[in-house]
Amino acid sequence: MRIARFSIDGNVAFGVVEGEPSDQGGPVVDIIKGHPFAEFERSGQKIPLSKVRLLPPVLPNKVIGIGRNYAEHAAELGNEVPDVPVVFFKPSTSVIGPGDPIAYPSFSSEVHHEAELAVVIGRMCREVPRERVADVILGYTCGNDITARDAQRREKQWARAKGFDASCPLGPWVETDIDLERAADLGVMCTVNGEQRQLGRTSEMVRSIEDLIVHITEAMTLLPGDVVLTGTPAGVGPLTVGDEVAVTIEGIGTLTNKVIKRG
């Protein structure tokens, strides 16, 4: 199911998105009782999706990014595939939702898009064995690892380059009906102003979702709502103020954001 987090009339709630844009009246959100990290009930109170504001589908304690997990992307930036996964963090303050603006950071003149499959953790976990990885995943969403590429090159350490405010769009919802086998071969696309920039498949990842979860949880505890960004295919490129960037992942949906000048 598609679990969205949204606001309406100043109230924030989770709900299950039902229907498609082609349906008469369009999709609706069935508000749930409770939250998606435990058993919940649908309330039966349904609101047209067009009447709500979609928020980031989760509020992660931490976002864990994986660098250079697609060989062609590593090569396009002049890098080799590392012997072990490159792990970095994006703070919770970097997270925005669908339709929210990406404010161009003042310290950069070369901001890039990076379309990624995002794994949403469903339960507290650490030292997860490979055979239990599926048990700790709530579902998947679209992610955009917005990166200040010039700062990344200049500063070496990636905290500012990848952690600035609004650098982690997530959404539009969490799709829970994708298993690990299917997640291992999903189409990932990025467009800018309607023009295709990135097109790849998660089957091109150097290390699988299982590999990544095992590797990360050897070192740290993951909490419900934490997000793992699994890397980006080749084709990353610049964004400018006024651009509309969209990340589409097969079986999930499309996450769209516009780039604005930081006020």
From TrEMBL:
Q: Where are the transmembrane segments?
A: none
Biological processes, Gene Ontology terms: carboxylic acid metabolic process
Instruction: Output this protein's name.
Output: Fumarylacetoacetate hydrolase
Q: Which organism is it from?
A: Streptomyces himastatinicus ATCC 53653
The GO terms this record gives for MF are:
acetylpyruvate hydrolase activity; isomerase activity; metal ion binding
Q: Does the keyword Hydrolase apply?
A: yes
Q: Which UniProt keywords apply?
A: Hydrolase, Metal-binding
- The residue ranges of the Rv2993c-like N-terminal domain are 1-57
Q: Which Pfam families match?
A: FAA_hydrolase (PF01557), Rv2993c-like_N (PF10370)
Q: Which Gene3D superfamilies match?
A: FAH, Fumarylacetoacetase-like, C-terminal domain
The Fumarylacetoacetase-like C-terminal domain, residue ranges: 62-259
